[in-house]
Amino acid sequence: MKLKVYAADITNLTDARYFAAMGADYLGFNCDEGHPSFIAEAKIREIMDWVEGPQGILFFSGWQDISVMESLLNITGCTGLHVGLAYNPHHVRRPILFRDALPDMVSNFDSVKDLNIVIKMGADLLGNNPDEVSQLYKLCCEYSCFLDFGQLPENLVPILEVIQPEGIVLRGGAEEKTGVKSFDYLDALFDILQG
Q1: Rounded CA gap, 77 and 42, in Å?
Q2: Please, are residues 160 and 140 in contact by the beta-carbon 8 Å criterion?
Q3: CA neighbours within 13 Å on the CB side: how many for 128?
Q4: 3-state class of 141 per DSSP?
Q5: What is the pLDDT of residues 74-129, one digit of tens each?
Q6: CA-CA distance, 31 to 58, in Å (whole number)?
Q7: For residue 145, is it left (φ>0), alpha (ψ between -120 and 50) or beta?
Q8: What SS3 state is found at 57?
Q9: Distance, CA of 63 to CA of 1 (rounded, Å)
Q10: How many CA atoms lie less than 13 Å away from 33 in the CB half-sphere?
Q11: How many other CB atoms are there within 10 angstroms of residue 91's CB atom?
Q12: Of 164 and 94, the one with more pLDDT
């Protein structure tokens, strides 16, 4: 199963280097001040200067003027934007590459067929509902969908095999100490995702 990987909520060089080395396609940086994963422009630029490979993506959950977002792209060295649920899908244009959605929202996105849709999911969302699995499979056939579970479910691989999304959202996290972090839980997953 070969899936694209969007590594979101990157806040440190350790995560960025790990995900880049593992072949992630995108590194996402949260630009919402006050969010636990917020990262300042200068730090994003510093990280992007250190890594090669993944495309840098700036995330904004709420409304921002597109000119402000484009200016931050220039400052940080990132190349694309990811907008949250509050962003009107009919105002989406390049350089916006990703847009959050809930599964029942995606059918209203006919005007953004070339956009990557990040479908927000709960870890237990697919437990016992075959209709929901069927709906997600159809969405992933029609759109470029990345599944974002927040916390990865134990049955992730079977879910991905059935739904067949374009990609998956993984997350960075806190370091044990500067430059030190265990990625054991992700190493096996990367073997499967890129196998």
Answers
A1: 10
A2: no
A3: 0
A4: helix
A5: 999 999 999 888 776 556 566 778 988 887 776 666 555 668 899 988 766 555 57
A6: 6
A7: beta
A8: strand
A9: 35
A10: 3
A11: 12
A12: 164
Q: Model's pTM, two decimal places?
A: 0.90
Tell me the residue type at 34: G
Whether the ω angle into residue 95 lies within 30 degrees of 0, i.e. cis, is yes
Query: What's the chain's Rg over C-alpha atoms?
Result: 16
In Å, the largest CA–CA distance within the chain is 46
On whether the CB atoms of residues 85 and 102 are closer than 8 A, the answer is: yes
**CATH topology classification for 4-193:** TIM Barrel (3.20.20)
C-alpha 52/C-alpha 64 separation (Å) is 28
Amino acid at 27: L
Give me the residue label for tokens 């700036």. Answer: 58
Locate tokens 């694209």: which residue?
A: 4
And the tokens for 101? 């959605």
